[in-house]
Every structure is written in structure tokens, then in C-alpha cells.
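Take a look at the protein record below with the fold in mind.
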Amino acid sequence: MYLRGLSFFVIFMILPLEGFTQSQILRSVPSNDELVARLSELSSDKTPLPDDLNILYDLNSRYEDELATYRRALASIKPKDNSNAIDKAKAEAASAITELRTIDCKIAAKDILTRLRKSLNDSYRAISDTIFMHDLEPDDPWRREDGGVASNGNTCEALKSFIGDDTKQEAIINFFDTVKEKYEEDARAREALRGNLQKVIELLQTRKADVQQLLNEKTSQQQLSGSLWIVISVIGLFSIGAILCVKLFSENIQMEWVTSGQVIQFVTVMILLSVIMALGLAGILKETTLGTLLGGIGGYVLAQGVGRAAAREVSRERSGGS
């Protein structure tokens, strides 16, 4: 009965491994060559972004889908180091084989055989969980030449037959080094993929940010164009109201404001400021142009005010002197 558990050794090597191994994951993501080609394409593409909103929306959606794909791929390739687990499995298998060689099957204790079988089973399962073993099946000494899985059997003699002679035993132990070499090769491939995936994601994020910024500007311009009649109406009503407000003051003040041109200047400045602010908010005018225009208008208004005050003072002095 205690040897019945040996059948699990066969099952472990026949049934598909639970979950994805790193080698399987590498097959589910873009290849390194594809990523390098995509990196080159993104880095060398200097084509200006289109002005058409529909094309921009499609481009933004494509970048989002591509980013989601690459992010899933990056999350699936998790860095981990199983080298120690492979070394430990190798040491356990070597110890079990060494002990089996010295056992006398005529007096072998059942608990010792059970422990040795378990050591061999656990050793092979440890490395089979590390990489995709199908890649190494032709060189796997744990398998028969006909492709089936070697069995420890259910007797001491069968266990000794399984480990074979010195050549077979050396092949079994050296197979752990083959597995480790394959694992380290996969690890290097994983790191290369992770690095290229991160670079592609960064470039795509930059591209998407540029598209999104242009979309925001185009959308603001479109909204402003659609509401331009409202802006013009409000500015027109405000200008008429400013002119009518002059009637609230005495005739002397009304004459002073009208003849000096202050009313017209005020209305003109308000209209210009409103239009400039609207164009600035829509992104049509850039920061430098916006600052230059506002500074120019402010300087003009202040200069006009100071000039009028000086002229009025001179006029009063002449009137008083005469």
C-alpha cells in the first residue's frame, strides 16, 4: 500500500502543470523582436498629429488599447528567482540516489523507501514547477525512450532500476543543471521583455498625453466656436450698458467723458480683453502672445490716463493764469 503513492509521481509528470509557468507566459506576450520593432517605430515617428477630431479620437483609443495590452503583459512577467529551489531539489535528489545505492532490498524498511520515493517525487516536481518541462523532454532522463514517464515502481528493486547505473544517476543529477540553465535563460528573456515593455509603455504614454492635450484644445476651440454668438452678445450688451451708464451722471461729467473719449476707450478695452481671454482659454493664443497683448493694452490705457491728467493740469494752469 505504501508503494501505491508512487503512482502520484507518474501523475505529476503527465498532468499539465497548474497555472502558467514563465516559459508559457513568454509565449502569451509580444516577442522581444516585436517590442524592439515597436520601439523603433515610436521613436522614429515624427509625423505631426492630425487636426481632425475623429482621427484624434481613433488614435487616442488605439493608444489606450495598446497600453492596456502591454500593461497586462508587464504584470504577467513577474521577476522571481527560483535558482535556490533548483539547487535544493538537486541536493535532495542526489541524497536520495546515494542512499538508494547502499540499501539492501532484502532488509529495506518500508518507511525508508517511502521517504526516498517522496524525495525523488518532490525533487522532480520542484523543477517541473519552475519551467515549462515540455521544452526539455528529449533530454529528460526521468522519462523513458518511448516518451513515457519513468516510474519508480512499487518495490525496492524497481527504485534501484529507476536510478540505474552510474551513467543514469549522473544524467539524473546533471539534469537539474540543465533545468537551471534553461531557467536562467528564461529569466534573462523575462528581464529583456520587461525592459522593452516599460520603454514602449513610456513612449505610448507620452504619445497619448500629446493626443489628449490636442484633443482638449480642439474640443475647447469647438465649444468656443459654438458659443461665440453668446460671447459676442454678452460683450455687445455690456458695451451698450457702459455707454448708457454715463447718463447717470451730471451733464458736465457726461461731456467730459464723451469728449475725452474715455467711454469709447473703456468699451474698446473691455471688448479686446474679453476676446483675448476667450482666445487664451481656448488655447488659440499661447502664453507669450497672451502676455504681450495684455501688457500692451494695459500700458496703452495707463499712458492715456497719465497723458490726459497732465494735459488737464496744463489746461487748468493756463486758465488760471489768464
Observations:
- Residues 166-226 form the longest helix (61 residues).
